[in-house]
Design goal:
Keywords: Glycosidase, Hydrolase, Signal. It comes from Stieleria maiorica. This protein has 489 residues and is mainly β. 0% of the residues lie in helices and 47% in strands. The protein has a six-stranded antiparallel β-sheet, with no helix packed on it. Strands 24-33-26-27-28-29 form a six-stranded antiparallel β-sheet, with no helix packed on it. A five-stranded mixed β-sheet has the order 4-3-2-1-20, with no helix packed on it. The structure holds beta-D-fructofuranose. Beta-D-fructofuranose (FRU) binds next to strand 1, strand 5, strand 9 and strand 13.
Length: 489
């Protein structure tokens, strides 16, 4: 209940107890979306890393399952991926049903190596391959493999990170057991400050471009990212089955402080065709969040695409990666109503009724027209001298989340802050979709062109929403409020 766990996410995935970090082994198989994750089965801080497990049929409601891959003999099970081996190339399959194969990093005895585990019962039980490791280059920072079937060359391709060198390495295999190096990429992008972890590589459609696609390589850095601490960057380019070539400069994945190590689902059927990923809703720097008996949640699953944001007539125009919450989440909307926000002015005024948002999980969709005002936006989760602010600021042209007064900000000195995403103002307007959970806020700007993901820990139980504008030239229009029901009951 609320009193016992006031910050328990109501529509974001969280483990019932104990510590969680990166999503792992995301794979769709036989009607189920599998979500494995870095998990400490013994406590509420990082350690004994193993793979926790949950499944969902709708990417919204999750069934918690027993531990899938456990730490053993001083070797932790670090991050990795999962594939369905449809042609039984590995030989792990029994009869007609293809095996699920996990490819993960074994961390221990001073090295990081790549290991396999397999399941012949829809991921319910796992066997570690007796021939592990399958890839060992005698390196202490070699981790987080992501594997996919590359149809044109008819083989498995792996992208894996040499973390300290800020390099990813591509390997190929016929059977998931023997790997040969193809090429390397990096250092590139923001190379100054940190390591590279948890790479992913996939093809994305360009919106409205008749099925044209481009490859995207995503990498994460433990520190030194755009809002401080951990975060991801991506490169748009080409992958010819051997080598990745970036055709644009690196861009940031998310402008908040709490979106790390996202990876995408493998084996989503062609009939669906979506590329969906989920990220760890956290930051290594401030990861000791003030919750118990669990720590951490995931972002909402997001659908990815590419969008041209420069001159549409320029075929080489810059592409940005667009992220949108999966449509399945809309089924949680128990009540939707327009709210009148047209009279936005200063000071901020309440636009919701007392008691309307008691469960504190909701979505707000709106259009901000800044006019000549310095800023315009919303305050949510308000209390006495407490609020989280989401708005547009014309100098320097950003949407921001300000969590400096969001509640408990004192648990870590780097937590309080304001996080900004540079945005386009199209015809005088910026659209935002704000997802608010009991301890999290995700802001999707201009239909997913930029995202700000931040955790918040409000102490107030007054979930009122207020609207504000610096002056009356600003307009806030088309505002819809959706109250969301909990996934826990
Ligand atoms: C990223 C990471 C990975 C590693 C895992 C360990 O957050 O550091 O590189 O596999 O966490 O838990």
């Amino acid at each position: 209940g609320y009193l016992r766990e006031p910050w328990r996410p109501q529509f974001h995935f969280s483990p019932e107890i104990h510590w969680m970090n990166d999503p792992n082994g995301l794979v769709f198989h036989d009607g189920e979306y599998h979500l494995f994750y870095q998990y400490n089965p013994a406590g509420n801080t990082w350690g004994h890393m193993s793979w926790g497990h949950a499944v969902s049929r709708d990417l919204t409601h999750w069934e918690h399952l027993p531990l899938a891959i456990a730490e053993a003999d001083g070797v932790m099970a670090f991050s990795g991926c999962c594939v369905v081996d449809h042609n039984n190339t590995s030989g792990f399959g029994l009869g007609e049903t293809p095996p699920m194969v996990a490819v993960y990093t074994g961390h221990g005895h001073g090295r990081q190596v790549q290991n396999l585990a397999y399941s012949n019962d829809n991921g319910r039980t796992w066997t570690k391959y007796a021939g592990n490791p399958v890839l060992d280059i005698n390196n202490p920072d070699f981790r987080d493999p992501k594997v996919f079937w590359h149809t044109p060359t008819d083989r498995w391709v792996m992208v894996v990170s040499l973390a300290r060198e800020k390099v990813v390495v591509f390997y190929a295999s016929e059977d998931l057991k023997h790997w040969s190096e193809l090429s390397r990429f990096g250092p590139a992008g923001a190379t100054q400050k940190s390591n590279w972890e948890c790479p992913d590589l996939f093809e994305l459609p360009i919106e409205g471009d008749g099925g044209k696609k481009r490859w995207v390589l995503e990498v994460d850095m433990g520190s030194g990212s755009v809002a401080g601490g951990s975060g991801g960057e991506y490169f748009v380019g080409d992958f010819d089955g051997t080598r990745f070539t970036a055709t644009q400069d690196a861009k940031w994945v998310d402008f908040g402080r709490d979106f790390y190590a996202p990876v995408s689902w493998s084996d989503i059927p062609d009939s669906d065709g979506r590329r969906i990923w989920i990220g760890w809703f956290n930051n290594w720097e401030t990861c000791l969040l003030p919750t118990s008996p669990w720590r951490s949640c995931m972002s909402v699953p997001r659908v990815l695409s590419l969008r041209k944001t420069t001159d549409p007539a320029d075929p080489d125009g810059d592409l940005v990666m667009v992220q949108r919450p999966v449509e399945e989440l809309q089924r949680l909307r128990v009540q939707s109503r327009p709210i009148d926000t047209t009279a936005a002015t200063w000071p901020p005024t309440a636009v919701t009724e007392p008691g309307e948002l008691t469960d504190m999980a909701f979505e707000l969709e709106t259009t901000l027209k800044p006019g000549t005002a310095r800023s315009v936006g919303f305050r949510i989760r308000t209390g006495s001298d407490e609020f989280t602010e989401v708005g547009y600021d014309r100098e320097p042209g950003v949407v921001y989340v300000d969590r400096r007064k969001s509640g408990n900000v004192a648990f870590h000195q780097a937590f309080a802050g304001r996080h900004e995403a540079p945005v386009r103002v199209v015809d005088g307007a910026v659209t935002i979709q704000v997802l608010v959970d009991r301890s999290a806020i995700e802001v999707f700007i201009n239909d997913g062109e930029a995202v700000i993901s931040d955790r918040i820990f409000p102490t107030s139980r007054r979930p009122t929403i207020e609207v504000f504008a610096g002056d009356r030239s600003a307009e806030v229009t088309g505002t819809t409020l959706h109250v969301l029901k909990s996934i826990w009951h």
